[in-house]
Amino acid sequence: MTQPTKVSPQVYPQQRAKASDESIQCWAHSQTGKRCTAKVTSREGEPIPIPYCERHLNSGDGALKVVNHPFFGKALVARYDLPAKYRMAYWGKRGQCANCDVEDRAISFYPPNPVTGSNIDPKIAGGRTLKRDNYNGVLNPGNTGDVIQYAACPGPNEKQNMRSTFQYFGLRNGDIGGLEFVTLMPVPKNTQLLHWYGSGWWEVRGIKRMDVGTKRYPAPLRDAPAKKKRRTEEEDEFTSPEVDLNKLAKAIDVEWKRREKQSEQTSV
Question: Shortest CA distance to 89 belongs to which of 121, 113, 57, 112?
Fold first, then answer.
């Protein structure tokens, strides 16, 4: 007897959290695709808290799944089909950056405005508060329930399907903080979630960047560049370049009139 095919649950993108919200509905979903109904409020006086309830801070979003990768330790995949603009939050404990010779999954922390909760400042060139004087250590997800730390970097033939929005959560010198990520395209079930680490990440660690997709857990591939048709010697000899026919007809008409006038002058 043929087993019925499991249909992925219908999941909708969440709204971005705002400082004006009295409480925020937890962004996470259950393993069956149901949105968590728990409300999240400020933990340390921050204007926008990490948008996960205590349960999902510790267990991670059920829409995501950490799996064993055959070559690279762990990987993060979609438990079921996810839509474009699905929001996720990376989070960790704030502290100092570890040496590069030690495995770490930390991300630099740039605390948002303590009132608006935004990392966008119109007074700063470029609008973003990515400035050295705003750096406030790193967010270390070690010994937490964060799962975004396992999202890999795409290899040379692959592309990212999620990215950070540069919307941070937390306070300067606070205990914990987070960073918003969003999917850039629909992500099919069991597809890996990938985001760009930056070229410097690989150079500093002396690691060669490689493709991470597997048959069981595929990765989105880069679009193949359009191949240019190679012209043969015969085509080069007999193929004429594109010509504006109107300009050509006008030029021929002018030339004929010139020749007619020259002929009349010669006969006189």
Answer: 57
Determine the Cα–Cα distance for residues 119 and 15; give it in Å rounded to an integer: 17
| ∠ Cα 21 22 24 (to 5°) | 65
Strand partners, 221: 158
b/e 221-236 (16+ beta carbons within 10 angstroms → b): eeeeeeeeeeeeeeee
Q: Residue 40 class from Cβ within 10 Å (0-12 exposed, 13-18 middle, 19+ buried)? A: buried
Place of tokens 């079921």: 80
Cα distance between the two ends of the chain = 103
What span, in angstroms and rounded, lies between the C-alpha atoms of 85 and 69?
26
Tens digit of each residue's pLDDT (9 = 90 or more) over 181-197: 999 999 999 999 999 99
Closest CA to 140 of 180, 173, 166, 178: 178
β-strand 176-183 against 87-95: which pairing, if any? antiparallel
Contact 169, 49 (CB under 8 A): yes
Residues in Cβ contact with 10 at an 8 Å cutoff, skipping those fewer than 6 apart: 33
Helix, strand, coil percentages for the chain (3-state, nearest 5): 20, 20, 60
Output the six-digit token pair for 74.
């762990």
- Dihedral sign for Cα 133, 124, 49, 190, please: negative
Question: The whole model's pTM is what?
Answer: 0.79
Cα radius of gyration (the chain):
29
Give the model confidence (pLDDT) of 61-103 as tens digits: 999 999 999 998 999 999 999 999 999 999 999 998 776 555 5
Asked if 138 contacts 149 with a C-beta cutoff of 8 angstroms, the reply is: no
- CB atoms inside a 10 Å sphere around CB 215: 6
